[in-house]
Amino acid sequence: MASMTVFLSFVQKSRNDLFRKTRKHEIIKTILEAASVTDKETCKIPERHLQRSRTLTPAQFLAFSKHPEQETQAVSRAAEKMEASIQVLKEKLHQKHKRSLLPSDLLSTDVLNKIANISGCLPYILPPKCSPNCMTSKYRYITGVCNNREHPRWGASNTALARWLPPAYEDGLSQPRGWNSGFLHNGFPLPSVREVTRKIIEASNEAVTEDELHSDIFTVWGQYIDHDLSFTPQSTNQPSLLGEVDCQKTCENQNPCFPIQLPSKERNTTSCMPFYRSSPACTTGYHGVLLGNLSTLNPRQQINSLTSFLDASTVYGSTPAIESKLRNLTSKEGLLRINTQYFDNGHEYLPFVDRVPSPCAQNLKADKVERIECFMAGDSRSSEVISLAALHTLWLREHNRLAKALKKLNPQWSSETVYQEARKIVGALHQIITIRDYIPKVIGLDAFNQYIGLYKGYNHTVNPGVANVFSTAAFRFAHAAIHPIIKRLNTQYQNDPNLPNLHLHEVFFTPWRLIKEGGLDPLLRGMLAAPAKLQVQDQLLNEELTKKLFVLSNNGSLDLASLDLQRGRDHGLPGYNEWREFCDLPGLRTETDLATAIENKNVVKKIMELYGNPDNIDVWLGGIVENILPGARTGPLFACIIGKQMKALRDGDRFWWENSNVFTNSQRHELRKYSLSRLICDNTDVSALPLDAFMLGKFPEDFQSCENIPNINLEAWQETLQPEVTCGLPTRVQNGEFVYCSEAGKSEVTYSCYQGYKLQGEAQLSCTKKRWNMDPPVCQDINECENKTSSPCHSSARCVNTKGSFQCLCTDPYELAEDGQTCTDSGRFPKSSVTAIILGIILCCCLAVTSWFVICWW
Question: Is the CB of residue 503 less than 8 Å from the CB of residue 485?
Answer without folding.
Answer: yes
